[in-house]
Amino acid sequence: MPKVTFNNKDKSFFNTLKSSVDQYFATHNIKRTGNWALYSKTAILAPLAILIYAFLLFLSMPVIVSIALCCILGFVLASIGFNVMHDACHGSYSSKGWVNETMALSSNLLGGNTYIWKFKHNIVHHTYTNIDGVDDDIALSPLMRQCETQKWLPPHRFQHYYGFVLYAFTSLAWFFVMDFTKYFNQKVHTTPMTKMDTKEHVIFWLSKFLYAALFVVIPILQLGWLPWMFGFIALNLTLGLTLAVVFQLAHVVEDTDFVHADQVEPMKIENEWAIHQVRTTANFAPRNKFISWYVGGLNYQVEHHLFPRISHIHYPAINRIVKQTCAQFNIAYNEFPTMQQAIASHYRMIRELGKKPA
Question: How many CB atoms lie within 10 A of CB 159?
């Protein structure tokens, strides 16, 4: 792993920001973790997913309706990932550790693995955001070129066309390829993982078999091979595209910074870690209440990267504090008023990166 450090000797920006955020929670006498607003989402999304799954297995319906329901199930599972799994994996779903650990296992029901995801996301991505050579989230090369320091290949000229198609295969790749690659290599991109204990090995294999039973074996036995195949593909393409687009809009858009990690020499980022997070991250559609509800506050990515252990339900409130502090320290704050504008920015960026460098 390339040694990357930040200039944290003078953390004046983050210290000022943290003090203001701490004061907000103290003044309002509220916990930083989830509350009824988050738990009500769980009470809606989890039963809805189970209900749709049961309908698909046991009710006879036209093919087009079944496909549509599979797509809806994909959207619901994505929202469970955004709201329940994501907060729980960061320890912000509840103030009780065992609740967080239990809810974090919803990642396994989506086809992933909580242990690997926590290491990949919480540790690698949140520490080394947009650092090429370390951050696994921008390591799609050679399929896609996501920053200027990545090697250009002729197929990249068309990546703004095939990119979104590629994103749709995210969840299929997650279950069938990426988790197993990380598990057997015991490495996330260039970073060796912390050693998994026996319990985590058992959970990994049991959850993979459980996912295969729920989403492959039982549907095939109940519905037949062909209906299962079309339904499974529809569900996962919807799930994969939704997950990928939301996370791409957080970092791979215009005006966000990228850094290249030297694979030989240790490097030091000029800024403190918190400033690096602001400059490598972007928000989108912050005033759209439906999007904020559906994506679990992940449209407030700047706030999330600065305070990952604060539940997303508090992000709209601390958004104003973060903006004011950024203005105070003359730090550019990246935000797109609508999701459409963020998608357009991402499209323009990958189109430009697809052009052959001069």
Answer: 20
Round to whole Å and give the CA distance between 324 and 318: 10
308-85-300 Cα angle (round to 5): 40
The DSSP output letter for 284 is E
Pairing of strands 191-192, 187-188: antiparallel
pTM greater than 0.90: yes
C-alpha triplet 320, 325, 326: angle, nearest 5°: 100
CA distances from 119 to 90, 196, 233, 349 (A): 11, 11, 28, 28
DSSP 84: I
Tell whether omega for the bond before 142 is within 30 degrees of 0, i.e. cis.
Answer: yes
Mapped onto helix, strand or coil, the DSSP state of residue 192 is: strand
pLDDT band at 267 (very low <50, low <70, confident <90, very high): confident
Reported as a pLDDT band with limits 50, 70 and 90, residue 2 is low
In whole angstroms, what is the distance from residue 167 CA to residue 249 CA? 12
Q: Residue 309: how many CB atoms within 10 A of its CB?
A: 12
Query: Identity (one letter) of the amino acid at 254?
Result: E
Rg of the Cα trace of the chain? 21
Name the maximum alpha-carbon separation found in the chain.
Answer: 64
Q: Which of 111, 100, 269, 126 is nearest to 204 (CA)?
A: 111
Q: How do 259-260 and 191-192 pair as beta strands?
A: unpaired
